[in-house]
């Protein structure tokens, strides 16, 4: 896909990984709309990058339908996620444990359903941002790893619906394979694990390879969208020193 002049909606695009992706999309000539809750963060990204912005709670089913129906994006990136409570299994409440499900999974369901039921135009792409925690777990973040794996699975289910209904919409999953400093979730998780080990967060994240700044994450996602060698992929791992690795194909 040539993303120049393509309409792109990015949820959670006002900071962290989402902002890195928005910066890359703008650099590559896309027309971007950022959806997030905080008006100050939206104003900052609008002023800095000249993108369109919409203030909304991504868990709001009506908002998801309205935004997609109004903008009809060529590319939809579901990136927004809540910071999990960091605590060991024996110290976490049920409400804290399930918070990622009430936020990330609930929002994912509403936006995926909106994309399928409007539906988006044939040839549209929907990228669901998961997490490395969906692969190996994250013992201090409650239900976060399971929630991110569920999003991965939901994207696969959405592809099956698209195929069955002959919609021509391609759903793919992006899996950051390392904690990334400079993001709310990355800083929170790295800080908790580093504290438990008695080391600094920077030292902890370097155990997983070369750092991947948010902008590098954005360029990796651009590669998934535009490089023909990724056309048959469904799940892609992205990492600072490895770039993009296809973890699962569309036909798997």
Automatic annotation (TrEMBL):
Cross-referenced CDD domains: SDR_c
Pfam families: adh_short
Any GO molecular function: oxidoreductase activity
Key words of the record: Oxidoreductase
Family: Belongs to the short-chain dehydrogenases/reductases (SDR) family.
Identification of the protein by name: Short-chain dehydrogenase
Species this chain originates from: Steroidobacter agaridevorans
Phylogenetic placement of the source organism: Bacteria, Pseudomonadati, Pseudomonadota, Gammaproteobacteria, Steroidobacterales
